[in-house]
Design goal:
The complex is a heterodimer of chains A (about 260) and B (about 280). With about 260 residues, chain A is α/β, with parallel strands linked by helices. Chain A has two domains: about 190 residues, 3-Layer(aba) Sandwich (Rossmann fold); about 60 residues. Chain A is about 35% helix and about 25% strand. Chain A has eight helices and nine strands. In chain A, the strands form two sheets. In chain A, strands 5-6-7-3-8-9 form a six-stranded mixed sheet, sandwiched between helices. In chain A, about 40% of the residues are buried. The chains are: A alpha/beta (about 260), B mainly alpha (about 280).
């Protein structure tokens, strides 16, 4: 475990913006023999083993219904495993999720929505200051006093990102958060998430349908088929990555081939 | 937009605006827009006055507006009008608070707790299907013509719309938001105050507006049948003495009270639901 933490540290040496106190921020995840079946149903996850070092950016891809979202929910503790165990190791334990939908409270102004992500024992003035800080990071500081209904889809999802980040989580789970956005907004959001991940050093798990998005953002890609890991590849292309990089395209093709072959 | 502002402008002002031809001045146009809802009531009153003055309708059955105004002035001078108005208002308000409070309580309880719902919802739905005004004979037997009778009927009448709409509002809160609240560490109390109640509020307001209508209806019927004070009583007394102008006066006051109650609710909605685009500019 110690070793894993160190390898991830060296991997992120490019993170120039990282503050000293953000060292070792990420959670390391150890999953052993994990199974999950819902009442009277077949197993969704079947005896899955997985180790994610602290600070790694992992993308989980797979066809609909392969169990990738269930895996994410199990790691977050939103579902109880039927068998096996999950250990999260790290100095901080804050886990946050970003959903496919923004899920903002329509009756709370943007800054108050962001503050939902903060722990309850933080004072009012501090909450406001921290919400504004993170809104600035996602480029929405001028929208702090607005109602969510006045924002565009991409802006709402950025507020949701700010809400997930405001507590400086050690693990950020992204459950297809960009699926509903238009192509350009999606690329901007990918870059923004990547930049913030590099700066803060949390562990990130991105569940996505979009293999192109996975190879552009992740250190490592897991292909899930029928509740088990079918493919586990590292993405060695250095950051910042250029869209259309032949190495990324080659990898994307390989993963797509694997997904399509299995479906045919 | 128009109603809340126009409620303050009485027909007198509306008539003045009509007389002045509206040109392209934007301020005047805005003013005219606000007065527009009052155009029809004003025309009806003017036509009515004209018909009465020309002898087209018998003032024995339908007094002229000026006579009604005179009756109002007369009763205002003796203090009778305000006394009855106050009595009716106090009954309406306290009945509304009692019945609405109980309705809100059961709506919240049954929306939040399966057990509570299974225990009480069926019984409440059965009682709901009894027209509450059909209880008047029973209520007179129980309470006579005392205050309790009126309070009981008004409370019973406003209970159901508020109960049903509160329950519906809580049921229809987006489950994704509730899941988000849980995942972000809200406890049950926070979930209620920050997610469930604000989410149910638009529906609760619908219930309040329904209930206000039922509140006036119930009170008038109850006061007409069994009371010794209040607007309904005033109208019934006037009928005994063929004071048709007072009867019409009472009816007009009901119309105005209903409109005021509705406008107050709209203002409250705008204040509480300003986050909702549907309420922002209404």
């Amino acid at each position: 475990m110690q070793e894993e933490t160190e390898t991830s540290e060296s991997k992120k040496m490019t993170a120039a913006l990282r503050l000293p106190e953000t060292h070792d921020r990420g959670l390391a995840i150890h999953v052993r023999g994990l199974s999950k079946s819902f009442e009277n149903g077949p197993s969704v996850i079947r005896g899955l083993d997985l180790t994610i070092p602290a600070g790694q950016f992992v993308a989980v891809v797979g066809r609909s219904g392969c169990g990738k979202s269930t895996l994410l929910r199990l790691i977050l503790g939103l579902e109880e495993p039927s068998a096996g165990r999950i250990a999260l190791n790290g100095s901080e334990q804050t886990k946050r999720i970003m959903f496919q939908e923004p899920r903002l409270l329509p009756w709370a102004r943007v800054a108050d929505n962001v503050a939902v992500g903060l722990s309850r024992d933080i004072g009012k003035a501090d909450r406001k200051a921290r919400a504004l800080d993170v809104l600035r990071e996602v480029g929405l500081s001028e929208k702090a006093g607005q109602w969510p209904a006045t924002l565009s889809g991409g802006q709402r999802q950025r507020v949701a990102l700010a809400r997930a980040l405001v507590s400086r989580p050690a693990l950020l789970a992204l459950d297809e958060p960009l699926g509903a956005l238009d192509a350009l907004t999606r690329i901007e959001m990918q870059a923004m998430i990547e930049r913030i991940w590099e700066a803060q050093g949390f562990t990130a798990i991105l569940v996505t349908h979009d293999v192109g998005e996975a190879v552009a953002m992740a250190d490592r890609i897991l292909v899930i088929e029928e509740g088990a890991i079918a493919l586990d590849v590292d993405v060695d292309v250095p950051r910042p990555r250029r869209r259309g990089d032949p190495a990324l395209a080659e990898l994307e093709g390989r993963i797509l081939d694997r997904l399509l072959r299995n479906g045919a | 937009m128009a109603n809340s502002a126009a409620i303050r402008s009485l027909p007198g002002r509306a008539r003045a605006a009509e007389a002045a031809p509206v040109k392209s001045n934007p301020r005047l146009r805005l003013e005219a827009g606000r007065l527009l809802p009052w155009l029809l009531p004003t025309l009806v009153i003017v036509g009515w006055q004209a018909a009465a003055s020309l002898g087209l309708v018998s003032t024995r059955f339908m007094p002229a507006p000026l006579d009604v105004a005179a009756a109002g002035w007369r009763l205002a001078l003796t203090g009778e009008l305000f006394e009855n108005l106050w009595v009716s208002f106090a009954r309406a308000a306290s009945g509304f608070l009692i019945g609405g409070g109980i309705g809100l309580f059961f709506g919240l309880a049954n929306g939040l707790s399966r057990l509570s719902e299974r225990l009480t919802d069926t019984s409440l739905q059965m009682v709901r299907n009894v027209p509450h005004l059909s209880l008047i004979p029973l209520v007179i037997l129980w309470f006579g013509i005392d205050e309790e009778a009126k309070l009981f009927l008004v409370a019973l009448g406003v209970f159901f719309p508020i109960y049903a709409n509160t329950l519906h509002g809580i049921r229809s809160v987006d489950p994704q938001l509730i899941e988000m609240g849980r995942v972000y560490g809200m406890n049950r109390r926070e979930l209620f105050w920050r997610v469930v109640l604000p989410g149910a509020l638009p529906s609760i307001f619908v219930g309040v507006r329904y209930a206000l209508g039922i509140m006036w209806l119930t009170l008038i019927v109850a006061e007409t049948i069994s009371a010794n004070s209040g607007l309904g009583y005033m109208a019934m007394q006037a009928r005994e003495f063929m004071l048709v102008d007072v009867v019409v006066l009472a009816i007009l006051i009901y119309a105005l009270l209903g409109k005021i109650a509705d406008s107050l609710t709209r203002a409250l909605e705008r204040a509480c639901l300003s986050w909702n685009p549907a309420y922002r500019n209404t």
